[in-house]
Amino acid sequence: MDVIFFIARLTLLFLVLLKDVYTATPQTYRMEEYCQGEISMIMGDFHSGKLVFHSDGMSNCSVTVASWYTEPYIQFYFEDFEVGTDDCLRDKLMIKDGNSVYSTQITGLGSKLCGSEKPDDVYRTFTRYLRIEYETRRVYPGTPVHFSIIFNAFDVGICDSWEIRCDNGRCIQDEMNCNGYNPCGDHSDCKLPVGSIVGIVIGSLAGLAIVMTVIVVSICCYRRRKFRNMPSQGRVPNTTTGYVISTFASHPGAIPSSSNPWYSTGHQQVLLGTAYENSPVPPMPPAQISSQPEK
């Protein structure tokens, strides 16, 4: 039972550690559900997210992501990208640094994005807002349009106690550290890949489980041997052949009475197969010793 309880606690510890490794996984938001609206990190109480868009290309859609006041910038990158053809005649995507249609384009990105070639860099805003606009000129459904954007809030300057500092000078929430989504933008949040960290955690827990199992088994074996070597109640250790006869009175305080002084008429307790160590065999009663006639 102790071993089962130990394994259960070890499993719980493993799940907790895995939760810590994969903490702060970006929340997913479907862009088509927020068209012409805003996704607020403050209202949603989150610091990282994933914006997903799937459409038949028959309607325009624009969404603004608003960051925190304490972390007033947003970094983002594309996870996948498929927006019409390369000529941008029917479909195009525009990413802006601000919350209006007149906001400037994101530095490093073109004025309009289309085709199937995914932008590979990590980009950032210089305001609290990231605006995503999809425009279409289709007159009938065609190839589906889809893309996904991973984004998170960050700050620059002196990091707070609940933040970690990236090599590029950005400050991100500590809970996003090593979440596998490159929240720093330069992979400096986690020196080891998440897979390696999980491997280390599993290996460490497996080693700990083996050590603790050996300890528990050793303790159980020791206790079992100790129990076997303990004398039973009412028994005398160091067995030899022979018998030990102990006499008890029938009533407390009464003196045993018997015509034979070697035995009493009271209750007799016979312990077979036990004797005190090196104790002599009791002599035969006088009544049983045959007398030899004199010659």
TrEMBL record:
Domain CUB span(s) in chain numbering: 35-154
InterPro entries named among the record's database cross-references: CUB_dom (IPR000859), LDL_receptor-like_sf (IPR036055), LDrepeatLR_classA_rpt (IPR002172), LRAD2/Mig-13-like (IPR042333), Sperma_CUB_dom_sf (IPR035914)
Domain of life (superkingdom): Eukaryota
Transmembrane segments: 197-222
Disulfide bridge partners, by residue number: C159-C171, C166-C184
Leader sequence residues: 1-23
Keywords: Disulfide bond, Membrane, Signal, Transmembrane, Transmembrane helix
Gene3D superfamilies per the UniProt record, alphabetical: Low-density Lipoprotein Receptor, Spermadhesin, CUB domain
Presence of keyword Signal: yes
PANTHER family xrefs: LOW-DENSITY LIPOPROTEIN RECEPTOR CLASS A DOMAIN-CONTAINING PROTEIN 2
The protein, known as: CUB domain-containing protein
